[in-house]
Amino acid sequence: MTRVASLLASALLLLLPLSSASAAAPEAATALFEAKTVADRNTALATLEAAAPGDPAAAYAAGASEFFTALEILAGGLHRHGFESPQSFMLPLMRLPVPGNPNPEPLTYEQFRAILVAFRDRLEKSAATLGSVPADADIGMVIDLTHVGIDLNEDGAIAPDESMAAIMASLSRGGIAPDDTGPPLAFRFDRADGYWLQGYAEFLMAQADFWLAHDFRTMFDGSFHMLFPRAKLPLQDILVPLDGGTSGGMLASEWRIADFISLVHLVNWPVVEPERRQAARRHLLEMIRLSREDWRAIRAETDNDREWLPGPQQKGANPLTGLEVGEEQVQAWLAALTMAEDLLEGRVLLPHFRIADKGINMKRFFEEPKNFDLVLSITGPAIAPYLESGKILTSDEFDQIQRQFGGAGFLTFALWFN
Fold first, then answer.
1. Which of 63, 198, 201, 378 makes the best surface tag, with the fewest CB within 10 Å?
2. 87, 142: one domain
């Protein structure tokens, strides 16, 4: 795997069920880890959820599994309707390696919204469960990415080609094959990593709520046959090639390129649930708070045992990312969190390339929602209502932070750090 591809793939670690190799772990967590069917996994999860109020380890494992079942809900819904991944970095969630479906069900706009709602609500449950784990809980759960997975095709089984290792290999276009018997890829997840996972739940809820805050039916009807070419969408018979088009990357298909241009053009979404757009901002602020808690806990650790996200005191390159964390990266990340929080609170304004003396108040963008037009936001007219005078973020401030991450780059570390 390349470094950047590995980091993109590693974002899917958010969906892992956690299991301890030690005798102190809940027995159901081990069953969760070893489950080969959805039924067995769900039975173990129900046991953990019942024990969660009085058992921090059970809550931790349950919250993590609830996260991964959220992604399973999304993947299953996509598979049901014949989703075909465009394998584009521009559509990150749409890179999921959902297996082909020879007999997809028709998909409506209402059904797609329902999939997003179910995905988002399951994430909320995960965040609440993880949030119930006490800050001082002694957690140490070991998982092997070659042994755990999700049901991507709704057949009730968790097969080897649905393991985390196989999914990450698919996302990075190489690496571990589903039937490889390579060395274990195990990490010991501790209390700090619970904050990390909870923060990613908040991040994904923010994205889902932003979509759901708007009516995107016109975009769905006019371009989503690119993603669901046989789901009986309105323009399927007119715009989808009879052979289904070419497989592989989006840029390898002329008709998919055309539909992506249509998608961007049709991002002109009326607001239908303004409270969801307001909630998206709260989720992002909570993600920032949890990231600070995560790093506070990481820097207090004295061990160095198969760390998923090591602190500067825990030497050694991460086996998945190949990266080592230094104090300069931690300080730069904390500065980036402050910068993001200042933007979301309206204390600092976001610059626009066409406007020199005013900036965008992002707090008002979320709290006073108006129709979201992507193209007109880029060109300027749609952001005019949110322009104010005040302190504007400068490129020099952001560049100073970026320099601390060296050759790997800010985005690479950001995907890992949350």
1. 378
2. yes
Q: What is the DSSP string of 181-215?
A: -----EEEEEHHHHHHHHHHHHHHHHHHHHHHTB-
- 3-state class (DSSP) for residue 302: coil
The C-alpha atoms of residue 310 and residue 304 are separated, in whole angstroms, by 8
Q: Is residue 51 part of a domain?
A: yes
**Coil/strand/helix, residue 372:** strand
Per-residue HEC secondary structure of 151-182 comes to: CCCCCCECCHHHEHHHHHHHHCCCCCCCCCCC
The 10 Å Cβ neighbour count of residue 174 is: 11
pLDDT digits (tens, 9 = 90+) for 364-412: 999 999 999 999 999 999 999 999 999 999 989 988 888 888 777 888 8
Q: Give domain status of residue 283, yes or no.
A: no
Q: What is the phi/psi pair of residue 289, to 5°?
A: -60, -45
Task: Give CA–CA dist 312/296, Å, rounded.
Answer: 12
Task: Among 252, 269, 286, identify where a domain stops.
Answer: 269
Q: What is the DSSP letter of 272?
A: S
Domains identified in the chain, total number: 2
Using DSSP bridges, classify how beta strands 140-144 and 186-190 pair: parallel, antiparallel or unpaired: antiparallel
**pTM for this prediction:** 0.89
In a domain, 343, yes or no: yes
Same domain, 335 and 216: no
Query: Where is pLDDT greater, at 412 or 238?
Result: 238
Nearest residue to 82 via CA among 110, 118, 114, 106: 106
Please give the single-letter amino acid code of residue 115.
Answer: I
Span 172-187, average pLDDT = 55
| Residue 263 shares a structural domain with residue 320 | no
| Residue 293 resides in a domain | no
Res 386: pLDDT: 98
Q: Helix or strand or coil: residue 338? A: helix
Looking up tokens 């956690």, which residue turns up? 18
Q: Which residues contact 23 (CB under 8 A, 6 or more apart)?
A: none
| % of residues, the chain, pLDDT over 70 | 85
User: What pLDDT, on a 0 to 100 scale, did the predictor assign at position 19?
Assistant: 38
